[in-house]
Records
---
Amino acid sequence: MANLEVNLGPLKLKNPVLAASGTFGFGEEYASFFELEKLGAVIVNSLTLKPKQGNPPPRIAETPAGMLNSIGLQNPGLEAFLEKDFPRLKSLNAAVIINIAGDTEDDYLTLARELSEINGILALELNLSCPNVKEGGIFFGNSVDVMSRLISKVRRACRLPLIVKLTPNVTDIVELAEAAESSGADILSLINTLKGMVIDVSKRSPLLGNITGGLSGPAVRPVAVRMVYEVYRSVKIPIIGMGGISNLDDALQFFLAGARAVAVGSANFIDPYTIPRLISDLQQFMESEGLHSIDEIVGAAQR
Amino acid sequence: MANLEVNLGPLKLKNPVLAASGTFGFGEEYASFFELEKLGAVIVNSLTLKPKQGNPPPRIAETPAGMLNSIGLQNPGLEAFLEKDFPRLKSLNAAVIINIAGDTEDDYLTLARELSEINGILALELNLSCPNVKEGGIFFGNSVDVMSRLISKVRRACRLPLIVKLTPNVTDIVELAEAAESSGADILSLINTLKGMVIDVSKRSPLLGNITGGLSGPAVRPVAVRMVYEVYRSVKIPIIGMGGISNLDDALQFFLAGARAVAVGSANFIDPYTIPRLISDLQQFMESEGLHSIDEIVGAAQR
Amino acid sequence: MLAKARVLRNEEIVPGCYYLQLEEWQIARGSLPGQFLHVRIVDNIAPFLRRPFSIAGAFPDSGRVDIIYRIVGKGTELLSRLGKGEYLDCLGPLGTPFSPARDIAVSVLLAGGVGIAPLLFLARILSGEGKKILVYYGASTSGELLPLKEFLPKKAEVFLATEDGSAGYRGLVTDLFESTLVAGTRRAEIFACGPKPMLKILAQKNRYWGYPMQLSLEERMACGIGACQGCAVKVRSEDDKTGYLRVCREGPVFDFQEVAW
Amino acid sequence: MLAKARVLRNEEIVPGCYYLQLEEWQIARGSLPGQFLHVRIVDNIAPFLRRPFSIAGAFPDSGRVDIIYRIVGKGTELLSRLGKGEYLDCLGPLGTPFSPARDIAVSVLLAGGVGIAPLLFLARILSGEGKKILVYYGASTSGELLPLKEFLPKKAEVFLATEDGSAGYRGLVTDLFESTLVAGTRRAEIFACGPKPMLKILAQKNRYWGYPMQLSLEERMACGIGACQGCAVKVRSEDDKTGYLRVCREGPVFDFQEVAW
Ligand SMILES: Cc1cc2nc3c(=O)[nH]c(=O)nc-3n(C[C@H](O)[C@H](O)[C@H](O)COP(=O)(O)OP(=O)(O)OC[C@H]3O[C@@H](n4cnc5c(N)ncnc54)[C@H](O)[C@@H]3O)c2cc1C
Ligand SMILES: Cc1cc2nc3c(=O)[nH]c(=O)nc-3n(C[C@H](O)[C@H](O)[C@H](O)COP(=O)(O)OP(=O)(O)OC[C@H]3O[C@@H](n4cnc5c(N)ncnc54)[C@H](O)[C@@H]3O)c2cc1C
Ligand SMILES: Cc1cc2nc3c(=O)[nH]c(=O)nc-3n(C[C@H](O)[C@H](O)[C@H](O)COP(=O)(O)O)c2cc1C
Ligand SMILES: Cc1cc2nc3c(=O)[nH]c(=O)nc-3n(C[C@H](O)[C@H](O)[C@H](O)COP(=O)(O)O)c2cc1C
Ligand code: FES
Ligand code: FES
């Protein structure tokens, strides 16, 4: 039987298919469909230091082959998470990666430090698509300097494998990827959502309560695959690819472009069995192609 | 009857629906479906100084709710265009806007100067999604400095209304739009294509001959509408909106976001009658809503 | 649960409004009034998201589950093309159902438009429990009113309102209800579903009337199961703090006092 | 032109391969062998682009236009679900047709797989002009071979090849043709359509054989009418310069000497 295990630098996964942050809650809901231990890992909803209410509704808009969301990082905050959600998630035998977000460097650092103390966390994923309130709202992930400083500090504050999730809303994704690598990231996640909006023509106003939202789903896949392809050529650390994956063919595009693992986001909403099906299709694919490890095809489309 | 005329600064159009550059050839093919004089204007294929062969095939890939193209600016060059294509286009009574592209500043300047001498051209559109060979391949549209310098020079070299077409593959579209305005652009076109790629899984290689291509179609519409919405707030010059428009509702999203005219691209490939139908639907809409001019709803969704 | 439900019937009953009967035994057995199905209309990327519809009836003995829907966009338009014998991908039953009080014998069901759907299911169940059912049902014009006889228990009393007066009371259904009301004289509880403005008016007025009242709300959904936080509705807790709850999980049925309009 | 063509028949004739008969009088009257239709499979955004298919037959007297297609992906899969009486949005006839020489009495039609489609149309027309028709037709296995009798004029002579030898000659159809060839003894012209590797081999060999030869090529298309430059094929002019021509406009039929492989 083909071996689905992968090593992403310091992070060892039983298989390379993850649930993307924000699309899988804290796992509970999907546990009624299948056993969470099947997953490579669950990347939980972005967690902030204090509880966050999130944005006013509507928060969801359908778009051609995709969707916009403006959840606004609604989450119970670190304390409640550690008390309630985390133990439940662990009791469901999920491999857990915690995605963290903040308004200031200090937020990230406190989260990283405190989560470092907790047993049973596989890795941290830094969500950099957040505006830095101290620097006038510039996004952590949009500026090489702001990002690099943050990553270096978090790197020192925490002993867990560090995944940095890059935003695609930038001129040069390669420059940011390289900076993340040299600031101490162990792994890169690509991509977060593209910034977009829908206007409700009948109301002559933006549809989302928050005006703009993040575009995800099959529509963005060509952008995501391109970014993985470009980043793979210029960094040495492993990449988790995501953006519009819903089946084996989609996932293989990412592996061939250079991702060593993939994450499934919006597709979970369409079919809750997307991830377990993808894992078993991948297993079958590897067997029929005689692959011993997914590494054999990672980056194979590079030329 | 509702008046469809619009003024985009110095550019007066009989209606606000244009054919987007690169998707309408030099007009000839569509002239067998309807009279080109119906259109607000035809923005022709990007024109370069010398003839350009374009990229190796395949040049087209279908994507979810969209497509990638890597035509690579194939065109006959200025001389042949002026000799053959332009007179034919004029004889079809089309209002003509010329989109120009170059590898160097000099290319753009020569094109702008020579086209300024020609009668019957409504405006020039600067395609900035081209790498500047002299500056090591950085895209004209990605850097405020490189772009601003180019626009200022072209501005001085030409007496025609100057449209600047921005690329969406940037961190801050507003910054670029403001720079284009202050360098002398009369009008902005948003958006060009998003950079993407598709991998042919069966061949384990990029599908397009050129590896990457430009994403267009309904998939990108949320990104395009958002950029028009953001740019409208910060510049005074008029905007031509485009990206995934195929019907009245799509076009209205752009008008409400802040575009004073729209252009239709990929949708022409799906239904060659898209533009004339959109014009008559728009006319009907304005009449049933009692609008005297499209200006009455431009930017109405801003809040 | 996720299931392929077979279409038994899918017919336009009044212009623009369809009655869809499905066969799916597990869903039929598990459903309670107020819950909904989240359906995937085509096995394709357009439309991308699932669509939520209230369960208008569930019959454990025949495996039947009903939905009543109005065509408003691409998804419902495609749904209307689904033929008998074809299959519909359904996630459900989802959400928190109505929770009628044991000891209140009179149930007022107040609906605007297609909001009647979940109340039809509720009426059947409550009637089976021996309760008295009063249905207040409004639409903009008579052509939009569903033929309720087909769906309601015989004993239910129906009061109609249309905005143009083409059937029943001329005006809003909330006004009709108010006009028939001798506040406080009768112990009853209200279950309502319809457009947001109607529910908002009801909630405001009921602060004076003082009935127990449950509302079924709508919000745009992605997952439908509680994972994405997409279907947020603003609520106010007893200590007057606001926050968001999920229409798909804590809802779609909420106590009227909970909702922060 | 753009037209809605009514489906007369849409049936699987060999596994994975469908025969589609359409009724559209103007297209039926205007079509020539080698031209194609660019069809929009659903009135929806998925799949987004049109799909090109060669015209396998056009009958001006009955308004019928035929297509033969193999299921390879989502578009053709959806096309196969189209039922009799439904309509298909067709753009066409498009492209430059085959241009047979007046004075050559023998026509060799050389096809691999579903590449036979445009040649069936050509055979009927050429046969009507009194020409002798030799059809060389190859596939990987006999199960993939279309029942040519149904489509070809009676007088046409057919030579089959399968790669596994399950029918006719064992091997490539190009080899079969070569093996029956006494070069230069006969005046004939060749029309070929099939997978690119097959056409490439043919083009190379024909430099020695020296027949007039026209090839029908495929390339991914967007507009189908010549506007987007998407369907580029590399060609070599007489002075050995290369450039790109459009499969949808200058093609799909090209002289074998023109194509730069
Ligand atoms: C819990 C619940 C129960 C519902 N029950 C019924 C019912 O019994 N009968 C009925 O006719 N309708 C019901 N609706 C509304 C129904 O979901 C929408 O009419 C439907 O989703 C519209 O889809 P569309 O593609 O036709 O419209 P479009 O406008 O094209 O849909 C675009 C997007 O907006 C969403 N959307 C549009 N309107 C609504 C809405 N009112 N509520 C939530 N999402 C919306 C769609 O789901 C989709 O994601 C219910 C909604 C909810 C939340
Ligand atoms: C001039 C011409 C004539 C053709 N005639 C026939 C015919 O008579 N019978 C037949 O079965 N097929 C024919 N083809 C090929 C046919 O167009 C493709 O098989 C079809 O487009 C595949 O669509 P799909 O959605 O099933 O496949 P997918 O692979 O899902 O399609 C994805 C995209 O790739 C394009 N594509 C995939 N394969 C091809 C191909 N071989 N050529 C061009 N585009 C392709 C599709 O059009 C679409 O844009 C012809 C192609 C051309 C260019
Ligand atoms: C509803 C929703 C909520 C999301 N929330 C988060 C989040 O909290 N943190 C984060 O880093 N990414 C978040 N994302 C982004 C996803 O993790 C993922 O990067 C993106 O959706 C692309 O993948 P997809 O196309 O498979 O959905 C969210 C996406 C969606 C659709
Ligand atoms: C096949 C194709 C070729 C294009 N060529 C050009 C071009 O030469 N110059 C240019 O400025 N934009 C070009 N574009 C971009 C379009 O003008 C337009 O900005 C973009 O496609 C978004 O609009 P749409 O989604 O309606 O297609 C091209 C687009 C397509 C699809
Ligand atoms: S729709 Fe996802 S939480 Fe309700
Ligand atoms: S497909 Fe557009 S030019 Fe041929």
Note: The two ends of chain B are 30 Å apart (CA to CA).
---
Amino acid sequence: MSQYVIILVSTILVNNFVLVRFLGICPFMGVSTKVETATGMAFATTFVLTLSAILAYLMNQFLLIPLEIEYLRTIAFILVIAVVVGFTEMAIRKTSPVLYQLLGIFLPLITTNCAVLGVALLNVQEGNGFLASALYGFGASIGFSLALILFAAMRERITAADVPRPFKGPAIAFVTAGLMSLAFMGFSGLV
Amino acid sequence: MTTQQLWKYHGGLKTIPHRKSLSNSASVRTAVVPRFIVIPLHQHIGKPAIPMVNVGDKVLKGQKIGRAVEFVSAPIHASTSGKVIAIGDRPVPASGGAMGECIVIETDGKDEWIELDPPVKDFHTLDQASIQEKIRLAGIVGLGGATFPSHVKIPGGGAKVDKLIINAAECEPYITCDDMLMRDRPHDVISGIQVMLHSLQAKECLIGLEDNKPEAAQALEKHIAKENISNIKVIMTPTVYPTGGEKQLIKILTGKEVPSGGLPLNIGYVVHNVGTAAAIHDAIILGKPIISRLVTVSGAGINEPCNIEVLLGTQIKEVVEQCGGYTDDFEYLIAGGPMMGGALMNDEVPLVKRINAILCGAKGEFAGPQDSMPCVRCGSCANVCPTKLLPQQLYWYARSGELDKCNDLNLFDCIECGCCSFVCPSKIPLVQCITFAKNSVRNEREEQRKATRSSARGERKQVRLAKEAAEKAAKKAAKQAAGSAAKAKPAAKASAQLEAMNQEMKDAMAKAREHLQEMCEIKCPPASAPNDITIEPTAAPVKEALAKAKELLK
Amino acid sequence: MIKQMITASLLLTLYSVVGTGLVAYTSAATSEQIKANEKGVLVNSIGEVLPSDNYDNEITTDKITFADHAALGTANPVTIYRARKGDTPVAAVIITEAPEGYGGAIKLLIGINSDGTLAGVRTISHAETPGLGDKIDINKDDWVKDFDGKSLNDPKPEEWKVKKDGGVFDQFSGATITPRAVVKSIRTTLVYFKNNSDSIFSKPSDTVNTKS
Amino acid sequence: MAFQMIAAPHLRGPNTTSKYMFKVVYGLIPGIIAATYFFGWGVLTNIAIAVTAALFFEAIALKLRRHALQKYLCDGSAVVTATLLGMAIPQLSAWWVPVVGVFMAIVIAKHLYGGLGYNPFNPAAIGYVVLLISFPKEMSQWVSPDWLGPVSPDKLSFAQTLGVVFLDKIPDTTSLDLLTHASPLDYLKGQLKLGLDVSAIVKSDPEMWGTFSGKGWEWVNIALLFGGIYMIWKKVITWHIPVGMIGSIIALASIVYAISPETAVNPLIHITSGGIMLGAFFIATDPVTSCASTKGRLIFGIGAGSLTYIIRTWGGYPDGIAFAVLLMNLSAPYIDRFTVPTIYGAKTGAK
Amino acid sequence: MAKVSLSEISINGLWKNNPVLVQILGLCPALAVTASVVNALGLSMATTATLVLSNLIISLIRNFVKSEIRIPVYIIVIASVVTAIELSVKAYAYDLYLVLGIFLPLIVTNCVILGRAEAFASKNRPIAAVVDGLMCGLGFTIVLCALGALRELIGNGTLFDGMHLMFGEAARGLKIVVISDYKGFLLAILPPGAFIGLGLLLAGKNIIDHRSSAKS
Amino acid sequence: MLIPILTLGILAALFGLLLGYSAIKFKVDGDPRTDQVSDALPGSNCGQCGMAGCGAYAQAVVEEGAAINLCPPGGQPVMLEIAEIMEVEPTEMADPTGDDDANVVLVAEVDEKDCIGCNLCHKACPVDAIIGMAGQLHVVVKEDCISCKACLKPCPMECISMQPMISQNEPVWPLPRNHEGATV
Ligand SMILES: Cc1cc2nc3c(=O)[nH]c(=O)nc-3n(C[C@H](O)[C@H](O)[C@H](O)COP(=O)(O)O)c2cc1C
Ligand SMILES: Cc1cc2nc3c(=O)[nH]c(=O)nc-3n(C[C@H](O)[C@H](O)[C@H](O)COP(=O)(O)O)c2cc1C
Ligand SMILES: Cc1cc2nc3c(=O)[nH]c(=O)nc-3n(C[C@H](O)[C@H](O)[C@H](O)COP(=O)(O)O)c2cc1C
Ligand SMILES: Cc1cc2nc3c(=O)[nH]c(=O)nc-3n(C[C@H](O)[C@H](O)[C@H](O)CO)c2cc1C
Ligand code: SF4
Ligand code: SF4
Ligand code: SF4
Ligand code: SF4
Ligand code: FES
């Protein structure tokens, strides 16, 4: 039990995927200009990350290891993730427009998010079991979502600030992310 | 004074320099008739009045010279007798030095009244509709500052009015005209109130005034006691700016809140200013239209601060002169109170119904231009906002042009009272930013309407072109047909062709019209539906077409 | 429709077969080297505390592993590599951890000669505060070399403490917790080694999982 | 005749930004006096160096950004930032410690965002945290409790303090290790790790522990509390953040204390040690970086208090105030979105 | 797509459309492995190699993919290339492999690579695609190395420390101690320093761009 | 060597079937230009354009007339390509540091002195915002002008120019600025 709590606290706060581990920074920068989009992205990421952690675990455990082709991990994982996410997107788009607006449109944004592959690979590296893998993916995505949404709200505020010209746009966003990361260092030592 | 439970509204300013004694110690004067009177046709909320006189006409005092074209509008009267010497654009008292259509009268000094309706002895004999009509014809608009045509506030169609509330708070610093009015003419005020109570079928009237006007309250009380009236109560409220805002007054007196975006009537109240009440007395009992008003002339920049009864249309410059003129250190001029009034660029503008005060600021008396610092989000502005808005957030979003967010934060509920600007340590002109945002939103809406209209017009042009082309083709075909008719043989074929062509064209037109209709109905608000815009390039002179277009587009 | 599906499928198969072929080929070509590299790391770090001419067995496979180890005060796996010359035990290299570090467990590699003296100590990984507790890292400071040659007799068991607690080992200025944890862990390990040295060397090796 | 064109209102209140800022400095005075009394001249040198550096960096930044120098230099915000940072760092810090901290605070955390009013993060907290993670050694050398007491001749004199701060010259009679020590909270944390229980720790070192909490620290905190009450009285701050923050710490500490009194630090020690009063009244309340509405501020305070408690109790840092404040700073814009007050007429409204 | 000259491709890749500073892509490695110059160099060289190879392959096969499987095919190509490179690094620069860790396989998801594949390689002849890949890779390398240098210098006071990880023992001598007796400013090495450093680089580029556009 | 190839080959075959199937089954019909624009975009799906990915951006460009210069990863080449597909004028790339000052609406105005009544502008205006008959003075109905500038070129007298539109609403207070010129 406590192992799982630790996984969650660790992935969400202490080793926040974005701010400490540097995974998924591109969407973190790209999709954070509006809180509404950021929120949609957060939900979609949670779905995909958890799903891909599970898929990768199954893939690894029941295909790659028995066949002794672990070196194909990267190819296999990314292929599975890309295909499943792509398929889900198309399916949702056709079957449930509401869900598509809420979640579906963000799905393509995620396959090229390196956090997705990162979660899968890290799970293997840390030798996590099924539940731990799923939780790891879930926690990572919650950490991602937390950082993303707060960052988006922050960026909305900064657009109104009198930022010196060379720093306008992405530059000040990076500085802000840096200061966020600084704040998140306060969680170090929690686990 | 009736002791009655009072409520509180959020925020407001308790410590604000009132400086009322400057003007309420002198007795009320009456301004002399000036040589020229300039009467703007737009002195109220709603459509401007349309001139009913021509240059050269002789007019009498109280004569209607401008006609209201709509229900929400008010007629305009000559405030003294004389000759109309011009009708056209003149500077009017609005911030920014705007121009407006005015009727200029050269006075004859006789101040000769037009024949008035005979005074009404007992207003109970009049029914609601006729009172409303009389008020409308008298040109009465709210004298509390909003200049909303007063007759509109008498609801027809059985809307229930619970209470009439008389706004005598006069919360703005410096201004004392309502105070003096109540002291000098309690009878007229009470009589006007009784007329309104009758016309509204309301049970009760509450007169709310701030407790810095004990004399006025006493005068009213005395009169009420004398007349033995039971359903009019005078209630003193604490002196907090802006208690005079109608929503705030309602909250203080009754504890109820006017719904956001709604009217007092939605919760069964009607609010009028005391000046309006007196004007209604004049109109109904005496039959006089509104041709003058009481104005406070005050400030350290005027030699003789006082209240003065001025004919509408008198130049402000002349009013100032009759109050002893500017002092040497006079700096700037405000029409209205120091919190909500607008600075005037020019004192050669006429006095209008709206102006309840003319403030002449001496150097350093008023704030003047401010060198603002950035907002430090101290929250003072939110603490004083009587509407409980977040002025600071509105300001941030206005700055970054996020109008949607402004709207989410209830931009249009701001009453522009100025409390937020007053307290801001960074001296940010918050109200100005908020009005900017409001205007931007309005412009944006206008823009959207325009876009819809444009596409409709674009479509129509296509239709027209198609029609023209078709006509041309038809003509050509006809010619051909005529030609071939000479050859006699393929005539039938030609006419069949022509027929088909015509049919095709008709179909196309019908389809296009349908489409256009649809678009207009769906996308355009009915008020400005473009289907009634008819700008065909006719042979009519362009000027006229343009005028017509302008009118239709309004 | 079926045709479209099949072409898509065939194309994708084609590309993945080619891609995989490429990767499989690279893998085959590099696997030897990689295996050697992986072993090299271990050999190198053992070599840091135990010169390779001191022993002649295949030390990387002559090891025993415990899932957790109460006697060493840790709940995580502990591995012991054994160095022998001929049949005589020379030394043991114990990979253990000091759980009470400031930033969590500090992973240590402790080499102990069969006579109970320390062959050397190295920090494998830690999360101590940089600039404060990270002097336990050989790349930052020589502090861990202080342990070379020390044993439970030198200094005396009750002096196996940092100076602040009355022992002989230096603490870092402003950071006592880290060295305290390391010293404690080394001492525990020495005690364990002293009490169990026979069984440590006599236990059979784990079967080593040689995966490609 | 043409007059001036100015937007209403034409009356403005007496408050100005610099008056507002300097009231914070006045509020800090009791705390500064108490700290100097207990911890010596180093407190004042810290503040002096920080303020000088802050004005210097502020001037440079303003110059680079082509802003009116005098107007913004006199606004007092840099002085507040510097004073707070000066009070938050160990008393005998070398001169470059406050200078680096102030640089991060003024240049990076403040002027990159446009200066006064635009910074989303509390500059002083940024400065402090940067120092803490970059120079942990320097940042944990607090003046030793056995040195506590009135500034007297046989302790470090003003001149000697200057020597330590600027020249790294420690008088021969003593050493930095003798002069400095872990702060009580840090010490407590270290000892708790060894499995001791709180009462034993507190008893074990009477030099370090005073009447009810860390010696000296308790009185500095109480002095700061009075300064904070002055600010509430002067309407510089509202009660929401301090009450939320201190209240939530007391609540959490009481619960944990009730569950296991041996291993948990009691609430009284919690609220009178470390930077709690400085944090609750002066740092978390920074209007620029906290929430806009009163409801938001309450949430902000509670959040900051809870995070402080969590970091103190389970985290890696002995005092989590600065981190907690920064973490709440970064949540503030989001909180603001949910805490818009209900406006007049909205309840009855048809909207 | 209109033919673009090779020099234009180069300027785009290196500066005008720099992957990190302008496209704001490939950020994870840019932040994660730039604590020192050597790590930055290692990863960016691997990335450049991937870019060149994948661009080449995709350009070659560009006429033989169907649109519905386009993305999976590109991903397979990229992933194969990356895995091959990863295995090679593991075999021939094992120390570097240990340092770069998970970021080596993660080159697959570096959005720059798929971005170039889609936006450029799939529409251009192989030579242009290779040049584009190379120039984008170099643009990536420049930024990573600059950031690495900045962080290493401020954080440690050194430059080119640890070059032996890549170039063997002989390269140890490349280390430059710029500031001797430096206290070390840890912030620069830690995660926050990465973000802030990149922000500063970006601002630097903006300043240069504004200057040059003001001149012309 | 056979096992890996076989495994991934089978996997790929399955996925190919799945994708081929879904491409047919879940086909969403739309403007063909959407697909074209979508193909032109980098496919990085980074969201910097402010939309949820490249597909969403393509859709926004085609269906909602979104600006064509919002994709930083694509840069100028992609912008030019979109311009071609959409048949619009290419623009500059958006400058992330640029000031986004509220721009003034410009509307056409005919200079009355010079107008010869050629009626050419009337013909050019797509929304009939110019009124007037041949041989007479032409006037722009400002409220209807959509600022397309289509009338400027045809005018032989070059007497049509774009002028700021004065708002019909009450005098607008500008957003105040402090003396540094920045909005306060
Ligand atoms: C656009 C507008 C429409 C109004 N419509 C009505 C109405 O239909 N009935 C009514 O009794 N009052 C109406 N009012 C009057 C308001 O209730 C209010 O008395 C007036 O605006 C003056 O308020 P103020 O000076 O506090 O702003 C209207 C006011 C405005 C501005
Ligand atoms: C901030 C504010 C202050 C006001 N103060 C007064 C006041 O002191 N006296 C007054 O009669 N009207 C005042 N008004 C106008 C009232 O809201 C309202 O328009 C008026 O009472 C309606 O009566 P009327 O239509 O007869 O003018 C104020 C409005 C606002 C927004
Ligand atoms: C931010 C921070 C990080 C610290 N990191 C460590 C550390 O890694 N190792 C350590 O032993 N002490 C560390 N300390 C110091 C301990 O908390 C404690 O003060 C110290 O170990 C007591 O040593 P002393 O008795 O020599 O003062 C750190 C302190 C702070 C404030
Ligand atoms: C009540 C109050 C508290 C403040 N607290 C801080 C603070 O904690 N840190 C700081 O740098 N500035 C503080 N300031 C000063 C100022 O608001 C701050 O420097 C701004 O963040 C600069 O934009 C404070 C100001 C006030 C009025
Ligand atoms: S009063 Fe002024 S400084 Fe304070 S929050 Fe409001 S706008 Fe900002
Ligand atoms: S002017 Fe508007 S925002 Fe400001 S206090 Fe008055 S109602 Fe509130
Ligand atoms: S910015 Fe360009 S690459 Fe990024 S999502 Fe938008 S269209 Fe795609
Ligand atoms: S600019 Fe365009 S819309 Fe305006 S008048 Fe000219 S042609 Fe018509
Ligand atoms: S490199 Fe783009 S998300 Fe990681």
Note: The two ends of chain D are 47 Å apart (CA to CA).
